[in-house]
Design brief:
The structure holds 2 protein chains of 2 kinds. By secondary structure, chain A is α+β, with helices and mostly antiparallel strands. Chain A is built from 5 helices and 4 strands, in the order E-H-E-H-H-H-E-H-E. In chain B, 71% of the residues lie in helices and 0% in strands. Chain B contains 17 helices and no strands. Classes of the chains: A alpha+beta, B mainly alpha.
Amino acid sequence: MANKNVIFGLYDDEQDLLSAVKTAKEEHLEIMDVFSPFPVHGLDPIMGLKESRLHIVGFIFGLIGTITAFGFMSWALASDWPIIYGGKPYWPVPSFIPVTFELTVLFASIGMVVTFYTVCGMGPGVSNPTLHDRITDDKFCVAFQLKEEGESEDKNKYEKYFESTGASLVDTKTI
Amino acid sequence: MSAITSPIREPLVKGNKTYHQITEDICAPTERAPSVAWVLAFMVSVGFLALFAFTVLWTIWIGIGSWNLNRTIGWGWDITNFVWWVGIGHAGTLISAILLLFRQKWRTGVNRAAEAMTIFAVMCAGQFPLIHMGRIWLAFFVFPYPNTRGPLWVNFNSPLLWDVFAISTYFTVSLLFWYTGLVPDFATVRDRAKGIRKKLYNVLSFGWTGSAKHWQRWESLSLVLAGLATPLVLSVHTIVSFDFATSVIPGWHTTIFPPYFVAGAIFSGFAMVQTLMLMVRKVLRLQDYITIGHIESMNKVILLTGTIVGVAYLTELFIAWYSGYVYEQFAFYNRALGPYWWAYFAMMTCNLVSPQIFWFRKMRRNVFVTFVMSIFVNIGMWFERFVIIATTLARDYLPSSWSYYVPSWVEVGIFLGSLGLFFTLFLIFVRVAPVVAIAEIKSILKSNGDQYVEQNKKYIEEKQFSGQQV
């Protein structure tokens, strides 16, 4: 992957971040990413982020779990080796409810968590580049990608923007 | 700038904290050398863990014959301990999932440690069904795998099998939920660390950056996992109660068992959370995050669930009398006044009578009283399970097979050893991970930090003083 030259500014408060992102949108600056130490509410609509579709993934995995559990138990007890347990019918549907429920929850949870880490590009031992050590502490960061050509001109534009929106620190980094 | 805060709510974060100060306070215990108290506690815990290993190996080597179970009483301390530990493992997911759905912000102070406690308690619980099988090397028989005996499938009508699925699902989902919450906080520790610690926390933090899209997905994931974990936590102890309720033993065969067990599980879980958090907040100096207000909230839950459990005890007695069914009547007469009357008495005192002290606000907010009460409840809930299991089995239909049971030293050793396992894991946890959810505390600071709450209070009082509408 080609290296990216990134210019970023740090803000001290989430309200400063929100107004800065709003300004960037008004000035049609293309934000690369926004980083924060905790989820900032109200940021997604300003940034224009679409709602996450992760819950749909959860539903699909849950459905797979339901079908797997119920289908398997029905097949095993009613078709593969029918046995009468305690005078119950070969296909004792009420007895299947607990295991069906548990496997629905299990499949949905594992499926969602694995999907989450996959789409976010995370996992054990993965190290993604970070712009500044204080982003996971108390600073709120807006980052822009610098163009290959005409970099200094681009840089001036962003520096002016960061100054006008009240960033406490502006820096560049190649990631 | 401050968000809208209710002036009548007690602040959940005290000490005029900034975001950076929160990071400093909560990361500090993972960064400094362990205190003498921690080292001593760890040594004692590992000692008990060694006792656990020894007594479990003894059981496996000699066989279940090393326990004092007999033909009449087939379940003793083993299943008592199992149900007790599973019950304790209910508070964490309740705090983090149900209170998340109800938007109770006080959960942020205690959810991390409570979830960790849940996971360790379920690990302890899981040991008992395994070792009480006798031939632990055949434990995989409980899973429906394609085998050479037909394949002969497991019996999906059996509540014991439902339990296998319930406990393993509960453990997995709790672990995933807990770890997903931990990832951003591990990233915080990573970005402060140097050298080998940085490498370690880099692995643990999964490459978290704090990107806006990631946070959005993270919140969506947390919410759905909470939605899934809420019915799950209720189902797990319901299914544990089915182990008893679907049998035909008088005293077990009752429809009240599922709600009664779930209430009891939450009751004992919160008691264990109190026991641990009161020590943790003191030793790690986290009184600003786990405040007296948090303790009071949890004591209210203990009072409510303890009273539900008490009502269930009395309902059982009433129904036994009202049903006119002699075996049921005898079972409960025997429970209260039979050979194990002392266990019943301990259960009633600890679970029904003693929590009533929490009707008084002063008692709810007293750390010492809370600590003593939490120990009482832990003991009481252990006795509840013992009363249900051993006393019921001791007097069955046939007077000629009536029996009495006292545990052997091996059974006592396994129980004490399981406490060692639990505390060893918990002590490692408080050294390695941030004990309070850093990111979540930061997200409630503006609405529940004391400086913001005070500011709002002043503002509203001024307005009221000048006769303005608020």
